[in-house]
């Protein structure tokens, strides 16, 4: 069939479509030709991404400090002498004790391992602050309203642990600490053990 007889499938709207260019360090995908208009997107690093990158460099060179920052110290210092075991017993949740203490200990080991790297202190203080605020704003009302344990644990998972893990995954490509959901949930129980969070109100 001659090209003269082929129907046209272009439209006015097609002519107005912008060309798309996706470029990497060595590869380029172009819709149109190399003379088409290119859209360039610049992504700015977030605070955590910068800290994770800095930590990786300092960890690899062994660049440590000897002091704990005030931002981290506020969470490490205990506010009273009632430990997590007694707090859970007082709240009638002693059946959760084994899991919660294990999670707390797993996080504490990681914190201890990296606490004398300055960027690690900032990372831990930053995330602990998020955990502290979210637990108080989301879980305290549920405890006061006597929500079921199932609802409380689900809220912790969906509204606290998962979003923070997603943030770490998005910004922690250089995370030499390997922070995980286990560590994030462990932060809750670490803060409980240091008397910053309560399970009985």
Q: What is the overall shape?
A: globular
Enumerate how many helices there are, as a single number.
Answer: 8
* Order of secondary-structure elements: HEEHHHHHHH
Note the main sheet.
2 strands, antiparallel
Helix content: 55-70%
- Kindly state the number of beta strands: 2
Number of spatially distinct domains: 1
| Strand arrangement, major sheet | 1-2
Give an account of the 3D structure:
A hairpin with a 4-residue loop joins strand 1 and strand 2. The protein contains eight helices and two strands, in the order H-E-E-H-H-H-H-H-H-H. The chain has a two-stranded antiparallel ribbon with strand order 1-2. The chain is about 55% helix and about 5% strand. It has one domain. The protein is globular, with a radius of gyration of 25 Å.
Short synopsis of the structure:
The protein is about 55% helix and about 5% strand. By secondary structure, the protein is mainly alpha-helical.
Give the topology, please.
Blueprint: H1 12-15, E1 20-23, E2 28-31, H2 47-61, H3 70-76, H4 84-90, H5 97-114, H6 118-144, H7 149-171, H8 181-193
Antiparallel strand pairs: 1-2
Helix pairs in contact: 2-6, 3-6, 5-8, 6-7, 6-8
